[in-house]
Amino acid sequence: MNNPLKLIPAIVLIVAVAGSGQTHGDIKLPAIFADNLILQREMPVPIWGTANPGEIVTVSFAGQSVSGKADAEGQWLLKLGPLETSRDKQTLTIKGTNEISLKNILVGEVWLCSGQSNMAGTFTESKGRRINPKDFETDYSRFRFNGHNKGWDTVSHKSQNRLSMVAYYFGKDLYRELDVPVGLITRYNSGTPIQAWMPREAAEQIRTKLKIPQNWRDPQDKEPRSPGFQFDEKIAPIVPFAFRGVIWYQGERNAKSETAFEYDQLLAFHIRTWRDLWAKRAKLDPLPFPFYYIQVPTQESPTTGEWPWLRDRMRRALNLTKNTGMAVCYDHGPSLHPENKEPFGQRLALLALANEYERKDIVPSGPLLDKVTIEGDKATLSFHHVGEGLVSKSGDQTLKFFELAGADGKYAPADAQIEGDTVAVQSKAIPKPLYVRYLFRKPKPNPDVSLLNSEGLPASSFMTDNFIPKRNGGLKPAEARRLEREKAKTKD
Known about the structure:
This protein is of the alpha+beta class. It has 3 domains: 96 residues, Immunoglobulins (Immunoglobulin-like, Sandwich); 247 residues, 3-Layer(aba) Sandwich (Rossmann fold), CATH 3.40.50.1110; 76 residues, no CATH class. The protein is built from 9 helices and 27 strands. The strands form 6 sheets. Strands 2, 4, 5, 7, 8, 9, 10, 11, 12, 13 and 14 form an 11-stranded mixed β-sheet that branches. Strands 15-16-22-21-18 form a 5-stranded antiparallel β-sheet, with no helix packed on it. A 4-stranded antiparallel β-sheet has the order 20-19-23-25. Helix 2 crosses helix 8. The longest helix has 20 residues. The protein is globular.
């Protein structure tokens, strides 16, 4: 694995760290540090907490021992150097005027799992879907998860009612493929927009930049959905805990809050903000940790909703920040809460295994639009991640759900055909095409796809235009609509 942080030695660092508890008294640790925890391998590992101002604190683990002094506010942070994978139970000791010993500590791969209700959904919330106890006949003692202020627990059929289904299936594939301890940090909350997961100051910055009205809090205006609330409650207390990367399943609430059209920029900004914050708190160079997310599969009615634009903005976000990946799960809708989350976790795991763990034999994703070439009345589309080739779900070379539009932005159904590793699209109704889209809206609200790669992974929906709807019908560029919307909000 290519990681520039592997060779950094143990470092002593004294800083003020958000979410670290009270400022005076015996040594105390954030709730994330508890018995049975899994520490991230192959990178510096920050350990932090509170103590008496000026108190000398020593952290000892796996043959390393680092010491430092608590600052004037009683805050301290020490960093262990990169750790080797360890399946053996070890003890992490933090010592000052008092001593804390954390037992049964392993070293492996740790991932942060965050988002809204579809990430939060547990097995008890899914109709009859449970982890089969036989799945745990092998030793799963090294597969663990941490909930909000709940300590660390071993993944098992007994603990499944406290574990996200998406996180479980993701972690399960990593655990089996890598054969190392795997830890999952779960932080989610139903019905929350992306701005709730940003620091408040950052949320206001991006709101101003994108000219989003000030009352973007949420139509229902509930505090858990307000900018910064979830960050303060669930994320700030774990910064800068070391992990490999993030998996993210969120976006439904933004489709309902008239911010679907800005979601590509919101998501990219969110990712950069988290990366910069982790690096700043740990005094490290910016950490471009992998950030893999699910493209929401929800299929709206044919005439209403902002879901098609949201899905495409999620696709476009891939081009706005590095080291990201998107799992396409359109074939597992159309419910707002798909019951079977197994493919969701598995497709996130494909991204991680192929990109972060360098499994070159894995195709990480379904086809993603690369470029469009237009000659006369024909649009030719090329794709990333074609695998062993493009295929049609129907079994022949003919594809469904493609449309073309000219300069007026009015789309018409089009004929589409696989030609090698490309797709050719034509329509008699559009003799001079400029734009093409796929899986925008279907005539009936049931999940389906047409274009896949040979590995059976579906292509992402997409549109190549930048038009979005006016409330009174028709189309207009996104910037004009934002200004119109802001003006209307001011009048209210």
